[in-house]
From TrEMBL:
Pfam family, one: BPD_transp_1
Record's protein name: Carbohydrate ABC transporter permease
Species: Kineosporia babensis
UniProt topology in membrane: Multi-pass membrane protein
Chain ranges passing through the membrane: 21-46, 83-107, 119-143, 155-175, 196-219, 257-276
Entries under PROSITE patterns matching the protein: ABC_TM1
Amino acid sequence: MSTTLPAPARARRRPFSPARGLVHTVLVVVCAAWVLPLLGLIVYSFRTIADSATNGWWNALVKPWFTMTNYQDAWTTGGIGRAILNSTLVTLPTTAITVVICAVAAYTLARMKFRGRMTLLAIVVSLLVVPPQLTLVPLLRLFGDLGLTGELPSVWLFQAGFVIPFGTYLLHGFFRAFPEELLEAAALDGASVPRTFFSIVLPTSVPIMVALAIIQFMWSWNDLLVPLLFLGGGADVAPATVQIAGLVQSTGGGLNALSAAALMSMIPPVVVTLALQRYFVRGILGGAVKG
């Protein structure tokens, strides 16, 4: 006697419907709208100036002729190598300052009882509505009086200061939901508040802090206005965004070296984001708190 086994679930196909076809069509159009400009940027970065001046980038798919000259020009003449280093010197300290201050402030407001705690939290939340552009002129004058204009700490303070309210509010909600049993067990074992914070709270809060670090890193790396105002446009201190904006003016719209510079400036944030995203997902799936 033979029995017929049911077909595997993965072999079963849902019947086609106009609604599903419309959804798939919209998704394909959206993906093409995102991918095609990036593909054109990549192709332009490898094409010669003569080819780019005579025909569109899509012709390279028919008659491919590529060169690495654009990357060499962007690295040497365009100064994108120094600019990427400057962006790193701006972004990494800003991200570290933001995460550290937000973690300490959020834990203090969420778990430590003192007079005026809710008032202080309300002030922090109200700072979320303050636009950064409103403080540019006052802070420029203040940093000028302090001798910080043209120095990296001015950008660190500005960029971190306007993300700290958001980061504190984000981490505050996480710390408020932190299991009380873990904190009580640590207190019964004789752990002090700093020991509890560094040994228990921080290790189990890595996913949410990684998410905050990604947000700050991307905003700081892609920021153009703040470094341009507080550091100036000098090649020795200009980050990648400012240097690429200068290349737009100096090349008169030439796309070859500019495309190569843009692609090289995209590599660090893409690598960092993908690495932290994998770590973030692993932390969520592993479970920060069990029991």
